Structure formats: structure tokens, C-alpha cells
Amino acid sequence: MTKFKRNHTESSLITSTAYDPLSQVLEVVFCKGGIYEYADVSEQEFANLQNSKSVGVFFNGNIRNRKEEHYKKVRN
Prior knowledge:
Layout: E1 7-8, E2 14-20, E3 25-30, E4 35-38, H1 43-51, H2 55-64, E5 71-75
Antiparallel strand pairs: 1-2, 2-3, 3-4, 4-5
Protein name: KTSC domain-containing protein
Organism: Microscilla marina ATCC 23134
InterPro entries: KTSC_dom
């Protein structure tokens, strides 16, 4: 997913995100290491993530737990 522009976040959990609206894949780079891809993330969910007061809280409550079966680690 490196062809998509990464968005830096002000978060203690997530360093940056990238999103592909065609495949609906969200890429998340975590501060403590690891890059993961989450499938079936809508454009609205991504917009809500980017516009939330706390990216980490929104991610944990709305994407991480709901999409557990739809993610993969792509790099350490």
C-alpha cells in the first residue's frame, strides 16, 4: 500500500495511516512497531478516524475490535 499517501497522526498509538478507497483497505503504522492492513473500512470510517479528537480511541473502538478477522500484519 506504499503508493498511497500516508497521513501523519498526533497519537501515542498510531504514527500514520493510509487509505485506498478502491479496495477499502486502511493501512496503520503503530508507534510501537508494525504495519497492519485492515479490510472493509469505508471511506466514511476513514474520514471519521482522521477527524476524531483521539485517533487511538476511535481506532480501538471502531476499527480494531470490529475488524479483527479482517486484518493482516504486513511489516514489523
